[in-house]
Amino acid sequence: FKNSPLPSIPNRLFYFARNRPEGKVLEPVGVFEVPKQQGKYETGQLFLHSVFGYRGIVLFPWQARLYDRDVASPVSEKVDTSAAHGSKEVKGKTHTYYQVLIDARDCPHISQRSQTEAVTFLANHDDSRALYAIPGLDYVSHEDILPYNSTDQVPIQHELFERFLSFDQTKVPPFLARETLRAWQEKNHPWLELSDVHRETTENIRVTVIPFYMGMREAQNSHVYWWRYCIRLENLGVEVVQLRERHWRIFSLSGTLETVRGRGVVGREPVLSKEQPAFQYSSHVSLQASSGHMWGTFRFERPDGSHFDVRIPPFSLESNKDEKTPPSGLHW
């Protein structure tokens, strides 16, 4: 098992290495398909993640707005400035992401590069700070999908696989959404929905940020609004670098500006190399206001000991304006 960018060779059988009492053996997994340049993948599509190398299956797509600060907009184009905070106007472009399940057998192999319990929700009891996660749930960009097919009726090991999907060999792909999946998507849409993606590259380090509104809770006679944000760091160059510090600025609509500094992220100082170029994590922020903004920098260290700062693209923290009741945990 190799946790590095993977090539897709259509119609080529691929294998995963597995440890057995008699030693390491190769097990056939499936046959690669041609990645889609146009259109979306369907519910039930099996795939290999091109960056993190895990097996997964598509539950449903999300249409997001990608604000890419590395792409200059032509002067003649109308610019959507709704996410253009700072000195640079950015045009939002529609981009497809997918809600997916991660194969539980692969989670131990990717845990150092990507959190497998990154999709979190507010708990449904009185503790306003209580969060819980669904293991093995992820969001994947269209270009990270390497599609494959398999004759296995249960090709993905995940506790929700058979609860969400049923096998029908007459269909392509042969896994169909059960009513439980459709109901789960509909009921939890506000807390699952991915809408805005922000991306910026500094000195070959690309930072992608996806914010998610989690809901509001009452605490000490005030309203506290919660967001989750997922960040991916990618080394697009050949030089090995290590993340050393984070520096955040958090602005609240109530008028407060908070500065947060610290070592690394989520207790780690990941190394980004050509072999393992990416690191992905999620964190949380709460405000006593219904909206705000975040931006900042990551400080990286080169092999010679010198440092450089990488910009975190500014992004908005928005609450659901039509929210009638706060979420009460994850609905089934």
TrEMBL record:
<keyword id="KW-0539">Nucleus</keyword>
<dbReference type="GO" id="GO:0003677">
    <property type="term" value="F:DNA binding"/>
</dbReference>
<dbReference type="Pfam" id="PF04379">
    <property type="entry name" value="DUF525"/>
</dbReference>
<dbReference type="Pfam" id="PF08755">
    <property type="entry name" value="YccV-like"/>
</dbReference>
<comment type="function">
    <text>Involved in DNA damage tolerance by regulating translesion synthesis (TLS) of templates carrying DNA damage lesions such as 8oxoG and abasic sites. May act by stimulating activity of DNA polymerases involved in TLS, such as PRIMPOL and polymerase delta (POLD1).</text>
</comment>
<dbReference type="InterPro" id="IPR011722">
    <property type="entry name" value="Hemimethylated_DNA-bd_dom"/>
</dbReference>
<dbReference type="GO" id="GO:0005759">
    <property type="term" value="C:mitochondrial matrix"/>
</dbReference>
<dbReference type="GO" id="GO:0005634">
    <property type="term" value="C:nucleus"/>
</dbReference>
<dbReference type="InterPro" id="IPR036767">
    <property type="entry name" value="ApaG_sf"/>
</dbReference>
<dbReference type="GO" id="GO:0006281">
    <property type="term" value="P:DNA repair"/>
</dbReference>
<keyword id="KW-0234">DNA repair</keyword>
<keyword id="KW-0496">Mitochondrion</keyword>
<keyword id="KW-0597">Phosphoprotein</keyword>
<comment type="subunit">
    <text>Interacts with PCNA and POLD2. Interacts with SSBP1. Interacts with PRIMPOL; leading to enhance DNA polymerase activity of PRIMPOL. Interacts with POLH. Interacts with POLD1; leading to stimulate DNA polymerase activity of POLD1.</text>
</comment>
<keyword id="KW-0809">Transit peptide</keyword>
<dbReference type="InterPro" id="IPR007474">
    <property type="entry name" value="ApaG_domain"/>
</dbReference>
<dbReference type="InterPro" id="IPR036623">
    <property type="entry name" value="Hemimethylated_DNA-bd_sf"/>
</dbReference>
<keyword id="KW-0227">DNA damage</keyword>
<protein>
    <recommendedName>
        <fullName>Polymerase delta-interacting protein 2</fullName>
    </recommendedName>
</protein>
<feature type="domain" description="ApaG">
    <location>
        <begin position="199"/>
        <end position="324"/>
    </location>
</feature>
